[in-house]
What does this fold into?
Amino acid sequence: MVRPPLTPEDRERGARLGALLREARGTRGMAEVAVASGVSVDALRKIEAGRVPTPALFTVAALATALGLSLDALVSDVQPPPAPADRQVS
It folds into this structure.
């Protein structure tokens, strides 16, 4: 199966996810979060840097749990804001 190339929107979402995880980690070390989540330090580093813009759902869920984040809130924070309507519907 050939995977379609990532879009700029995919990359932007990945960068936002990485930033949110990095912020939630705060002063905790990467190794501490990696152990708590079962995700390798290398994978966590790549996700936080935006180098893995589309990590697996179970990886994101494990990191969210380890960081005390709601998966629903994390997903909504990562989504881009809705585009403004070009015209109003009457």
